[in-house]
Amino acid sequence: MKKVTVILVLSLILLAISVPLVFAAEEGQQATSKLYYYALAALGCAIGIGVAAVGSGIGQGIATGKAVEGISRNPGTSGKITVTLIIGLAMMESLVIYALVVVLIILFVNPFKI
Hints:
Elements: H1 2-23, H2 30-73, H3 78-108
């Protein structure tokens, strides 16, 4: 797990360092700069939506497990727990949808129009 974390952090640092190179291109490097920008944008979007989906999945799993545990301990409160669980799961899923919207904006914006 430690290796994966180190590789992820180093990849994000490399990504953050290389982004200014895209916007520092000269006239002859416009095509390469555009291609490099879209490659970095796609990589960043993939990492972003992946982190959002994994985080939401872990949160939903923990919430569902705790709800099932609460219902099994006290079956009389299953109605209240279920309603609260569904509202909480909807809120967690909305965060992934927000991440998807941000990712789509990043992918389809054209910074070279300016």
